[in-house]
């Protein structure tokens, strides 16, 4: 089992920055990939960025050059630094972890970008 708790969401003006953090606990050694997804109202949940246990990073095209994902194995956290935010980045952001036996989600944190 893996437990995920997100923090750091909020309201920001367009062009601003936010940093999201996900604290992971439980069977951490089983995690193959950990990252962030988002879901805007009326839309499907989509990948934002993820990082494998080997350190390979993947970004959605919409956030490349603006968002940075990082993982701190000592603190068991994965952060998402979001810069140059746009109104279309408004969504609930979810931390996600995948193991060979399951997929785990955090409760989500709201990010709202005003124009």
Describe this structure in a few short sentences:
The chain is an all-beta fold and 115 residues long. The protein is 0% helix and 57% strand. The strands form two sheets. Strands 2, 4, 5, 6, 9, 10 and 11 form a seven-stranded mixed β-sheet that branches. A four-stranded antiparallel β-sheet has the order 1-3-8-7, with no helix packed on it.
Mean pLDDT: 95
Question: What quaternary form is this?
Answer: single chain
Structural class: mainly beta
The share of residues in helices is under 10%
Low-confidence stretches: none
Overall morphology:
globular
Radius of gyration: 13 Å
Count the strands?
11
Provide an overview of this structure.
With 115 residues, the chain is mainly β. The protein contains no helices and eleven strands. The protein has strands at 2-7, 10-13, 18-26, 33-39, 46-52, 57-59, 67-72, 77-82, 91-98, 103-105, 109-114. The strands form two sheets. Strands 2, 4, 5, 6, 9, 10 and 11 form a seven-stranded mixed sheet that branches. A four-stranded antiparallel sheet has the order 1-3-8-7, with no helix packed on it. Strand 4 (33-39) and strand 5 form a beta hairpin. It is globular. The protein starts with a strand and ends with a strand. The mean pLDDT is 95.
Brief descriptors of the model:
115 residues; mainly beta; 7-stranded mixed β-sheet; 4-stranded antiparallel β-sheet; 11 strands; 57% strand
Strand and helix map with partners:
Layout: E1 2-7, E2 10-13, E3 18-26, E4 33-39, E5 46-52, E6 57-59, E7 67-72, E8 77-82, E9 91-98, E10 103-105, E11 109-114
Parallel strand pairs: 2-11
Antiparallel strand pairs: 1-3, 3-8, 4-5, 4-9, 5-6, 7-8, 9-10, 9-11
